[in-house]
Amino acid sequence: ILNYDIMARFRRRTCIILLLFILFICSIMMALKTLRPDRAGFGDPFGLGLLPELQQRTVLLDSKQNSLNRAQGETVTRVSNLHSIAVNTMKASMSPVKKLEEELSSPNYNFHIFYYTWYGNPQVDGKYIHWNHPLLPHWDPKIANNYPKGRHNPPEDIGANFYPELGSYSSKDPTVIEAHMKQMRSASTGVIVLSWYPPGMADENGEPTDDLVPVVLDYAHKYNLKVTFHIEPYKDRDDRSMYHNVKYIIDKYGSHPAFYRHKTSTGRLLPMFYVYDSYVTIPEIWANLLTVSGSQSIRNTPYDALFIALLVEERHKHDIHRSGFDGMYTYFATNGFSYGSSHHNWASLKAFCDSNNLMFIPSVGPGYIDTSIRPWNNHNTRNRVNGKYYETAFSAALLVRPEIISITSFNEWHEGTQIEKAVPKRTGQVVYLDYKPHKPNVYLELTQKWSEKYRKEQEQWLM
């Protein structure tokens, strides 16, 4: 009987250990899946629906135009005052610039990082902007009915799954802009890709921000960073409006020392423009602007530049080439979501670009989660895996030896792609994600690490 009891206990213990081991293996497999997720592509219902939604988030605020016109004088005055404050602040702090140069990593002008200045709060802007983002409904009403509606209520409840160290800040606050520049410089990035709409235009949840560009340029220059422009799909964007807007940007900002110009293989120094949702416009329209024989050609004029198109589907590479673009980027930080954002397609895209004299700029990101604004989109979350997802993306990018790597993003908090400092936060309603067990600056440090690795490997490529 004693032996029987001993054997029974042994069998129970063995079964428990075996069950725990199986659970451990399953958890490891789930974590690994986030590093190399299944390809969603555009056969996935999410792929069909999200991109139009992303396109819709960047439209002219027609309904607000009258109120914007009435408030124009007040807005210009407020921004002018902020610019004066920024200039005075900078003058007072220019003396320790040399010390900053010694403390911070040197900028890598081949690392470009997407930056958004669409946030606002009552202290600076008189109200919350973007932090109170609405919950976006699913395109299928049956599915939409299963999820909450409404909008976020800052400062405790914001439209993000992580919470910024700076709180629900205003992008117009000079102290915030300077903090951002210092973080981007500490990460050894070199070029800020600034989300941009023409004057008087904005995304559907924001307000015009073109007046803020001079302040961003000034602080970027203080930290030896450069600024280029991420042209969003504003209403009626076509060859004619693009010509006028490129002319406007170069005329107004082109003489600033922080304005980015890229040195081409022929030795020319040209401005660079990323064009978001470029695929929405047909190649024939782009060719009017971007080819030498086009009716609105910008080529060989004082406003000639490098134009980089967004590649989502594989067929877009041929459209981009026909359109006269100078290169392509992939933007999305969701490995497997689109053809362009899937790491395993980067080698073939780089080969296509090399054979057609185009630049290939892969976009890497630390992860993706947008369930704070799209609560139905959980299956497209990409877990950060404590930084491993980010490092996997960098590793894949370096394998194709790109001239430039873009980073999605510094502070797109709604989609959880930010590398800006985030902190743990728990409220009565929400428990935010965080970077633990690491510090709030972990993704800045990882970026700096890969910037140095890129520099060393690039030296080998050029030998």
Automatic annotation (TrEMBL):
It comes from the Eukaryota. It is an enzyme of class 3 (hydrolase). It holds the Pfam family Glyco_hydro_99. The keyword Hydrolase applies. It catalyses: N-{alpha-Glc-(1->3)-alpha-Man-(1->2)-alpha-Man-(1->2)-alpha-Man-(1->3)-[alpha-Man-(1->2)-alpha-Man-(1->3)-[alpha-Man-(1->2)-alpha-Man-(1->6)]-alpha-Man-(1->6)]-beta-Man-(1->4)-beta-GlcNAc-(1->4)-beta-GlcNAc}-L-asparaginyl-[protein] + H2O = alpha-D-glucosyl-(1->3)-D-mannopyranose + N(4)-{alpha-D-Man-(1->2)-alpha-D-Man-(1->3)-[alpha-D-Man-(1->2)-alpha-D-Man-(1->3)-[alpha-D-Man-(1->2)-alpha-D-Man-(1->6)]-alpha-D-Man-(1->6)]-beta-D-Man-(1->4)-beta-D-GlaNAc-(1->4)-beta-D-GlcNAc}-L-asparaginyl-[protein] (N-glucan mannose isomer 8A1,2,3B1,2). It is found in: Golgi apparatus membrane. GO terms for molecular function: glycoprotein endo-alpha-1,2-mannosidase activity. Its EC number is 3.2.1.130. One of its GO terms (cellular component) is Golgi membrane. The keyword Transmembrane helix applies. It is a single-pass type II membrane protein. Keywords: Golgi apparatus, Hydrolase, Membrane, Signal-anchor, Transmembrane, Transmembrane helix. PANTHER family: ENDO-ALPHA-1,2-MANNOSIDASE, GLYCOPROTEIN ENDO-ALPHA-1,2-MANNOSIDASE. Belongs to the glycosyl hydrolase 99 family. This is Glycoprotein endo-alpha-1,2-mannosidase. It comes from Melanocharis versteri (Fan-tailed berrypecker).
